[in-house]
Amino acid sequence: MANNLVYIVMDSCRFDSYQAASTPNMSQIGAVEQRYSYASWTSPSHYTLLMGLLPHSSPRGVFASEVYKQEFTRWVDRLGIPDLSFKNFVPYLSLPKVLQELGYKTTARVSMPVLNQFTTINTHFDDYRLMPNHNDFAGIIDDINFPDDDPRFYFLNLGETHYPYMLDGSSMPRISGVHGVFNAMDDFMLAEADTKAGEFFDSREMKRLHDQQVSCVEYVDGLVAKLLDKCPSNTHIVITADHGELFGEGGYFGHGPIMHEKCFEVPFLEGACP
Predict the structure, then answer these.
(1) pLDDT at residue 201, rounded to an integer
(2) Domain residue ranges of the chain, discontinuous segments joined by +
(3) pLDDT above 70 as % of the chain
(4) Cβ atoms of residues 111 and 158 within 8 Å
(5) Among 116, 81, 59, 87, which Cα is nearest to 4's?
(6) Per the CATH hierarchy, to which homologous superfamily does domain 4-272 belong?
(7) Half-sphere exposure of 2 toward its Cβ, with a 13 Å CA cutoff?
């Protein structure tokens, strides 16, 4: 039987935030690697991830085309399905499409309004939902189940590690229907504009925010224990981030229109459910 797949994206989590955190539960899945995202912002990065291309290791002395081909063939080991290759992903270049054709039930739970269900990123998902709270990994886990019939693919975008790195769900935007989605997007854009218009964070505030992200990683790790309890042994788990984050390095804060290595460095780990 094909392996279940749980694919977790900790939004904005940069590599050294993961390194600084205590992660006993995620460490059971596999050793963390430093990898690099293909993009520095949520939407384009998630489109790439859902092509089937995971964050890369920036290998030297090889043709880039070979790196892509090798990455697609790695799905053979992850899914336990022989003979998967690049040709399985053509022409759609869509991981959920490939999995649907293999008999998987495809489910996505996302936290960022820019990934809402009205965008094309929800294509080839049987069940796609924007969570009503910015940081509700606990609620996402409650919704996960593994019936005995078809294999499951869960794609999970987590907001806990995204700015403002706060764990109080009551302080996050609540989203209801199409107007709620766009209102929440406006709130995020206005908050960013207010930050730019005001005083730039000083070094003390930058450190406080970075420390908060580390704490959020530890919070996510605590919930991973509950997730692992629900996963059957034939479940492959991938945990990574869509991009990194800047906390004052080079005069930058945040992510997006920034060309800095910390904006691309992400943690990556994978393995079978322990």
Answers:
(1) 78
(2) 4-272
(3) 88
(4) yes
(5) 81
(6) Alkaline Phosphatase, subunit A (3.40.720.10)
(7) 23
